[in-house]
Design brief:
The complex is a heterodimer. Chain A is mainly beta. In chain A, 0% of the residues lie in helices and 55% in strands. Chain A has strands at 3-7, 10-12, 18-25, 34-39, 45-51, 58-60, 68-73, 78-83, 92-100, 103-109, 113-117. Chain A is globular. Chain A starts with a strand and ends with a strand. Chain B is mostly beta strands. In chain B, the strands form 3 sheets. In chain B, strands 2, 6, 7, 8, 11, 12 and 13 form a 7-stranded mixed β-sheet that branches. Chain B has a 4-stranded antiparallel β-sheet with strand order 1-3-10-9, with no helix packed on it. In chain B, a hairpin with a 7-residue loop joins strand 11 and strand 12 (104-105). Chain B is globular and about 40 Å long. The termini of chain B are far apart. Classes of the chains: A mainly beta, B mainly beta. The A-B interface holds A 33, 35, 37, 44-47, 50, 59, 61-62, 95, 97, 99-100, 103-107, 109-112 and B 1, 38, 40, 42, 44, 49-52, 55-56, 61, 91, 93, 95, 97, 100-108.
Chain lengths: 119, 114
């Protein structure tokens, strides 16, 4: 059974940084594209970033480009999102989600973790 | 970016009746080389992560009840719940994955019981 377990969320001040992690288990991690999707309070889903199975290709929403960095450790089956220069509008539940091989329809999702940016 | 527009924003349907949700993309998400539409549908219940229902516009994910169906091609797509059940109350999202440099979701449609 595929499981995605997120960690690293919490309360951070504006301008601060966090590193989100998503531990993957159940199947071979490196074979699948991975993404981060967020959902602001009472809002819809917003794609944040994606990464290829090898980690060689990365993609970002314009709203986070230059501030967020996605990466993966295929040896330890973990996905990361380094986020810096946080703004109030980055407050959201962050989900990691697995694609299907190299297709970005998202067939497994983590439970989500809340990132709150506030002073 | 490909903009995904869903309609309606919300709808109330009687138990056992049909619910229809529309999704329109600002450009085609059909890839002619493999004859596939890069369109997925998700269901999200309160306090839960989204759940994949449909991919390639019309392929039902394993374990999804057959009352859920997807149709459409190019820029216009529909998710149909043929006979609404109480457990189908949720928000539904469409998503294009044609442009992998920038995935986009529709704004969501809230389905309630009338």
């Amino acid at each position: 059974e595929v499981q995605l377990l997120e960690s690293g969320g919490g309360l951070v001040q504006p301008g601060g940084s966090l590193r989100l992690s998503c531990e993957f288990s159940g199947i071979t991690f490196r074979g699948y594209v991975m993404t981060w999707v967020r959902q602001g309070p009472g809002k819809g889903l917003e794609w944040v970033s994606g990464i290829s199975g090898s980690g060689d290709s990365t993609y970002y929403a314009d709203s986070v480009k230059g501030r967020f960095t996605i990466s993966r450790d295929n040896f330890n089956n973990t996905l990361f999102l380094q986020i810096k220069s946080l703004r109030a509008e980055d407050t959201a539940v962050y989900y990691c989600a697995k694609g299907y091989y190299d297709s970005y329809y998202l067939d497994h999702w983590g439970q989500g973790m809340l990132v709150t940016v506030s002073s | 970016d490909i903009v995904m527009t869903q309609s309606p924003d919300s709808l109330a349907v009687s138990l056992g009746e049909r619910a229809t949700i529309n999704c329109k993309s600002s450009q085609s998400v059909f890839y002619s080389s493999n004859n596939k539409n890069y369109l997925a549908w998700y269901q999200q219940k309160p306090g839960q992560p989204p759940r994949l229902l449909i991919y390639w516009a019309s392929t039902r994910e394993f374990g999804v009840p057959d009352r859920f169906s997807g149709s459409g091609s190019g820029t216009d797509f529909t998710l149909t719940i043929s006979s609404l059940q109480a457990e189908d109350v949720a928000v539904y999202y469409c998503q294009q994955y044609y442009n992998t440099l920038s995935l986009t979701f529709g704004g969501g449609t809230k389905v309630e019981i009338k």
